[in-house]
Amino acid sequence: MKKTVLASNLLLLSTLLGLLLPTSKISTLVSFFKDTEVSADSTSDTQQADIDAATARVNDLASNITTEINNSDASEPVKQIAINNLAKLQKQLDSAVNTYKQGGTQSTFQSVVDTLILFINDVATPNDWQSAINLQTKIFAERTNEINEITETDPDNAAAKTNKDAMGTGKLKPIETLAKTKSKKSSITSICNTIIGIPLLSKSLQGTNSTSTPSTQDLKFANFILDSMAESREDAINALVTPTEDQKNEAVNALKTAYSDDKNQLNAPSVTLSDLQQMLPNFYKQFSNIVPTTDGNAASDSSKTNAIAALKAAYDTTKQTLDAVSGFDDAVKTALANAKTLLNQYTSQINAATSLSDVNTILNTGKNKIKSASYLYPTNDDVTATVKMIDDAAAAQIASINADTGASDSAKTTAITTVKNITSHYSQNAQAKNITLQVLKTIQTASVSSLKAITPIHDLTTKTVTASQLNTATNAIITAGNAKKTVIQNDPALLATDKEAAYTAIDGLVTTYTNQLKQATTTTALSQVQSAGVTAITNFQATQSVTTTSPVTQLITTKTTIIKPTNQKLVYAISSLKLYQSNQLKGKVIASYVKHRRTNRPVFKVLRTVKNDAGKKAYYVQNQVSGKKGYITTNAKSVAYTYYQTTPKQIRVISNGGLNLYKKSTLSGKQHHYQKGQSLKVHKLIKSGTMTRFQLMNGSYVTANKKLVISTAY
């Protein structure tokens, strides 16, 4: 019996992954999976009949898409771009076949084929590019006509000018440019989402506030956009040459049903202008996903089985999360019932789905809904009661501190300041948007215990610290750490790995500040360290990591951003800056940095450069002090190289601690120390890894770090 070692659940190996990620990323993904032995002659293994059927299916689909491409009115170069994009994917079948001839189950091989089918169906054709351009042209023309009717003296003139500017910056590129940059239908959708949802409805022509009911003109324009999107999609469906008339009619009927439902949502009395901005892009994406079901994109039994298994896994995770919750029996029971209902509902929808894209859409929606069921949300009364509980506990503790006859006024002030910091932090957390009932309950107990632990240090005028004083301060630090850990433990939005990382970080803070307490030589210093430590621990925020999925799930359910490797470099923030979890540069913020003087600017190591859905570059970086990783803008107004890249004639030392002169470019062999303010003449710039050095006229070297020196002449 021939056996070979394959990575379990690793469907496309380096074949399909190679299209999306560089080699270094492939090896990382492969390492996530444990190797298991697969029998090459097992009855469940891939057979030649499976390979023949998959080959025919992929080739038939590719042939149909080629027909659609050639049937368009686009120029030959544009058609050729689409054909080349298709050919790159079609070739991946051979690699997959060769892999599974060595061993691998039928079900996993079928998943490979299903994934490949999804990618091929997502190949953009010239008609897709032209349809997007035509739709935008039509919508822009309507808005332009409305704007032109507004005179210079009209009160709405300012809003009209804003809309006109938005249209100027949001124009789509010519079809030739789209063909070169947007190879997938989904990437075209993202462009149109941005154009339709944000610029055109970001400002009301009649000055309506975004949170208010839209004006008659705004609603009329929103309905025009919806009508235009539906008409554009129906025209695109009917223009297809490979589906049968019955298949196209079925898709058009589905489109009309969706359009009718969307029309009702759009015109609901409770809808605000902000709602319109969010609805229209979602409607556009919904319409784009409605396609005729053909043999080429039909959902297979194995694709449905795999999707249902993924739904079940999401339910199991939600159940495990809810089972761990105590103190909310009724809420947990209701949530579990809701999750079970959602599992059954989306399982039925998957079984009824006819196309792979439908299965994929239902799966993603179902998983998100089931996961949301694990979040128990409080009422406004719950939040109000929690804030009052925190305020009452703070008031009681402040009263206790003020009544302490053994503490000086200075010690009382320090303790009260710490109490106020804790109160402010936990009150803000209690009122945070989308806070869960579990976290709110934990905040109640954590805040009270932390507040009660704050007592003033006695005898601040003494030069030595007593054992009793040290124990009191240490207890305050440890209590704050335990309280913060409890809050994190009960937060269902955090993964287990996120929680473990947070626990480690909190332990580190507790250790750091308890060590500092032991090193305090006066009670004044002891009080200051206690206050700083409790505040730092209380303000600690656990960071949500990006969920790592298996290559199977990643390929089937997500739109992968192509990541370009870059030579690692160091940059620093020259203005206020945010470190984001997502390369879209929005959403969850890992850390925020205010604008600092040049010598104190935060430095980041650039690990790679990426392009987000909007086509904008972002740096994936690691903060050189905290070690936090995330995405920052590449905008030259916000970040710059930490080290000089050009050679000035003269520099001045700006570091408060001065600057060392070295014999070697590796900055070894110290020769001299320059004081702040001294000027130095530069001979040339030397590169050394992520850093640069200046060789001075005397032949020796100094750093070219902009935080330590500044150019004064070029």
What does this 3D model show about the protein?
- With 714 residues, the protein is an alpha+beta fold.
- The protein folds into six domains: 3-121, no CATH class; 126-288, no CATH class; 301-372, Receptor-associated Protein, CATH 1.20.81.20; 380-538, no CATH class; 561-641, Roll (SH3 type barrels), CATH 2.30.30; 650-713, SH3 type barrels (Roll), CATH 2.30.30.
- The protein contains 23 helices and 17 strands.
- The termini are far apart.
- 36% of the residues are buried.
- Residues 1-43 and 544-567 have low confidence and may be disordered.
- It comes from Secundilactobacillus kimchicus JCM 15530.
- This is DUF5776 domain-containing protein.
- InterPro entries: DUF5776 (IPR044081).
Outline:
The protein is an alpha+beta fold.
Question: Topology of this structure?
Answer:
Elements: E1 3-7, H1 13-20, H2 23-30, E2 35-39, H3 48-70, H4 76-90, H5 92-101, H6 106-121, H7 126-148, H8 157-169, H9 175-181, H10 185-197, H11 216-239, H12 245-266, H13 273-288, H14 301-323, H15 329-352, H16 356-372, H17 380-402, H18 409-430, H19 437-452, H20 467-489, H21 496-519, H22 523-538, H23 551-557, E3 563-564, E4 569-573, E5 577-580, E6 589-593, E7 603-611, E8 617-623, E9 629-633, E10 639-641, E11 650-653, E12 659-662, E13 670-674, E14 679-688, E15 691-696, E16 701-703, E17 709-713
Antiparallel strand pairs: 1-2, 3-7, 4-7, 4-10, 5-6, 7-8, 8-9, 11-14, 11-17, 12-13, 14-15, 15-16
Helix pairs in contact: 1-2, 3-4, 3-6, 4-9, 5-6, 7-8, 7-10, 7-11, 10-13, 11-12, 11-13, 12-13, 14-15, 14-16, 15-16, 17-18, 17-19, 18-19, 18-22, 19-20, 20-21, 20-22, 21-22
